[in-house]
Amino acid sequence: MNETLLASSSSSDMPWWAWVLCLVVVGVGAYFAWRARQKKIAMYRAWAAQYGFHYEPSDNSVTGLSTEAPFNEGHSRKGIDVFRGMYKNVHIVFFQYQYTTGHGKESQTHTHQVVAIGLPTARPLLDIGQENFLTKRFAKDIDFENQAFNDFFRIKSPNRRFAYDVIHARTMEWMLQDQRARSYPWRFEGPWLMTFRSGALKLEEVFFYADFLIDDPAPGPRHVWSPTPPPGGPRPRTRPGGVQPLSAPGGVVESVVAGMLGSVFLAVCVGVPVLAIVLAVYYSRRARQRHLARVSAWAAHHGFQYWPQEQSALAISRQPPFTTGSGREARDVLRGTFRDAHLHCFQLRYRTGSGDSETTHDYQVVAISLPAMRPLLDIAHENALSRRFDKDLVFENRAFNDKFKIASPSPRFAHDVIHPRTMEWMLADPRAQVTRWRFEGSWLMTFRPGPLKLEEVFFYADFLHQVLAQVPKHVWSDR
Length: 479
Prior knowledge:
Protein name: DUF3137 domain-containing protein
Region (Disordered): 221-245
Shape: globular
Keywords: Membrane, Transmembrane, Transmembrane helix
Radius of gyration: 28 Å
Oligomer: single chain
Strand content: 25-35%
Organism: Glycomyces niveus
Transmembrane segments: 16-34, 264-283
């Protein structure tokens, strides 16, 4: 018996070299992860120094920015890649907030991008979100005199007076019209006005969210920001979170239980999966119809034409990603006029691979018309691989060459468009540092991975108009 135990234990033990190999693999993986993180920190430090921000790779003090979700969820809360500085004469802080739920093998890490601007003085909590089916049915919030506003927005605050002072009639009109306000949660709390979304920090989005926080055209009466509370003091506070306990009529529960107990085994095995498929198809179609209605309403409001799918939009470019993969589609195609130029935006979708390895890719595309057709000119950003292996056009500014990758079959057109003042502007503008754009044929376009987001369209369109403003007029004359 002892021999059997020794044999089984020796057969289950890994040889020493296998343990060494595992340790080497883990060590190499950890080294490259550490090296990638150090490169990212160096890049963020350079970006912060260039634009006058203070940067900390880790600063957990920002986890106390708010007492509400997601800042009160999970454990091991961290503030990562924290930037502080001034933007449009207000204090701004933006960072990646991270927390963990569960423990051991069941633990999950959650990340949020947070952008906040300083308020004139500290004020009570005021949480602005969007209603959904569950909140409309079960959660209580503050009601206003505008029913359309109540149907769309969910407002929570322990101080109703402050909520009514901030969200007055003009603010409600702005919130109902502004696509950003209809899409993002935002919150007043203490000395900060903040917005946040799930996902990692993206520098190319930060100033877009900051502009949104600053753009409120009607911030409320002056006494809202006075150091003493307004006359009358706070009104009775609503129940924290506004959530009421869920309940269901007893007859409904009993009938459901009775039906389940009376079902036969075959009905359970066959009927439940079929029902699940039917419900999935139904809710998918319903979600798509709601999406079409929302985009149609946006198009009508801004005077755009809308096509749920229109393949001719793919002809805007003959370069990747417009020529990548198979099954290419142009979805949610919008065409109209913005600042006296044609504006064209849509969601590009294509597939790579096949069968179980098939992957779907989405890109948001925003383009404005050019005064005349011109050759391809692609403006991207350098990385370690492109610097080493790709050839591009070289300009007289070394810092510009190190940062940007310029490709064009017409060097003369490229140098006419990207003259010294344009290079200075591109090196100074935060959007140009992170946004890719392209001249091709009749269009100046920009694109990024991900679905079409209506609240971003005019932000990118404004950026393209600023690019166009840098181009000398003689470039558009026939030569």
